[in-house]
Amino acid sequence: MSVYWFDLILVLILFILIGAAIALAILFFLNNKGVVKSLKNFVTSKGFWLSVLIGAILGPSLVALVIWIALYVEGP
């Protein structure tokens, strides 16, 4: 596995952890029990983690795509 793929995997893990930390911070700082319970159900659902994973994959991929297109258009 090349260094590029290793770095990409580390960045994806970092984005997933940041998303999870933000979600947990929202849970701990809200005092309303109904809001906390509904947020806890949302965070523990599969849809939330699927969206975090897709965002972690697509975010860096779109940035890399824009950079590669700019380099391709500019030429050697």
Commentary on this structure:
The chain is an all-alpha fold. It has one domain (3-74). It contains three helices and no strands. The chain is elongated. Keywords: Membrane, Transmembrane, Transmembrane helix. The chain crosses the membrane at residues 6-30, 50-73.
The portion of residues assigned to helices is over 70%
Q: What number of domains?
A: 1
Count of DSSP H/I helices: 3
Q: What is the CA–CA distance across the termini? A: 27 Å
Mass-distribution shape: elongated
Mean pLDDT: 74
State the major sheet: none
- Beta-strand content bin: under 5%
* Helix-and-strand structural type: mainly alpha
Order of helices and strands: HHH
Uncertain residue ranges: none
**Radius of gyration, taken over Cα atoms and rounded to an integer in Å:** 17 Å
Q: What is the number of strand segments?
A: 0
Keywords:
76 residues, mainly alpha, 3 helices
Topology:
Elements: H1 3-29, H2 33-43, H3 46-74
Short description:
The protein has helices spanning 3-29, 33-43, 46-74. It has 76 residues and is mainly α. The longest helix has 29 residues, at 46-74.
